Amino acid sequence: SPPPPPRPIRPTDILPPERGHEVAKELGVPYYETSVVAQFGIKDVFDNAIRAALISRRHLQFWKSHLKKMQRPLLQAPFLPPKPPPPVIRIPEPPASRAWGPAALFCTPLCADVVFQLQGGQRVFAHRVYLATSCSKFYDLFTLEGAPGTGKEPAARARSLDGERGALGEGPRGALRAVQSDEALRAPAGDGARDLSAWGRGFVSMRWEVVADPVAGREKRMTVVRMDRSVAAEPFRAVLEYLYTGRLEQARGDLMQVATIAELLEVFDLRMMVANVLNKESFMNQEITKAFHVRRANRIKECLGKGVFADVVFRVDDGAVPAHKPLLIAGCDWMMAMFRGAFR
C-alpha cells in the first residue's frame, strides 16, 4: 500500500528563535542554532556540549587542575549567508556591419589630442592612447616627465607601465617598456617647444598648443610633435594607421619608405610585415596581426587600471572611473554621439 501522505506543517510546529532562547533560559543552558542543510552550528553544538560536560566535572579534585583553563560554552557567531558570486558580464562583439571603429577614427580623428607636423606644413591628427598602447616609442614620448614648454627638466627617465609593474604584479609579456636612454632632454627652444633631436631619430620638438579639433572645430589643447623633414607624409600615415588597425595595405607602392619609418619608430612587427609582403609571404602577416591585437589589449588594460592618458572621468556612486574618449568612441555609438556634441 502507498505510504500515507505527509502531515501538513502547522505554524505551531515551527519553533522561532525567540521561543528557543526562552526555553534555554528557563533550563539554564546555552542556546545554539543548527542547520543540517547549510552545515551551520553543528560543530558549535558538539564543541560546547563537551565544554559544558567537562566544566561540570571541574569540582572533582582529580579534574580540578586539568580543567583549570577550560572555557565555558561560547556564544554562537551569527549565521551569515555566503556572499553571492559576482555576475558574469559578457561583452558582446560589435556587429561586423558597424562602420565606426579604429580605422574610421584615424580617418576622422574625433577628439584627437596629438598632431604631427610634417614637411610642407602637412599635419596628421591622432590619439595618444592608440599610439602609446601600440608602440613603445610613442609611449615613451608621451610620458616624458614635465609638460612641453614648461622649461622643467625631467627628474628621471619616463616611467612606463612595465616599469611600474611591481605594483600590479608581473604583467603580460610584451608590456610597455621603460625609456632605454638616460640622456635628459635638451632645454626648451625659444618658442617653448622641447627639443627632441637628441631623444630619438625623426623627432624635432614637442610642445603644447591650442589647436582646432579637425572634426568638431572646437579649439583645445593638444600635443604638437614636429617631425624631421625626412619623414614623408604618406608612409608616416601608413605607420600610424597600422598602429590603429594592425593591418597593412599590401598594394602600396612605398612599402620601403613605410619600413624605414617603422624602423625609425621601432615598430618592428610592421617592418616584418613589409618584409613578408616583399618576399611574397603575406600569409605570415595574419599571425603578426593577431599578436598585435593581443599585445595592445593587454596594454590598454594596464592604461585603464592606472588612468594613463585618460581624458574623461565618469562619476559613479562609489567613486570615479577614468577612461579614454577615443576607445569609447571607437566601440560605442552612444559615446561617439555624446563626445561629438550630437547626443540627443
In summary, what is this structure?
This protein is α+β, with helices and mostly antiparallel strands.
Report on this model:
Residues 112-252, 310-344 form the BTB domain. InterPro entries: BTB/POZ_dom, P-loop_NTPase, SKP1/BTB/POZ_sf. It holds the Pfam family BTB. This is BTB domain-containing protein. The protein is of the alpha+beta class and 344 residues long. The chain has two domains: 17-64, no CATH class; 102-334, 2-Layer Sandwich (Potassium Channel Kv1.1, Chain A), CATH 3.30.710. It is built from 13 helices and seven strands. The strands form two sheets. A five-stranded mixed sheet has the order 2-1-5-4-3. A two-stranded antiparallel sheet has the order 6-7. Helix 8 (233-245) packs across helix 9 (255-264), helix 9 (255-264) packs antiparallel against helix 10 and helix 12 (325-331) crosses helix 13. The termini are far apart. The relative contact order is 0.10.
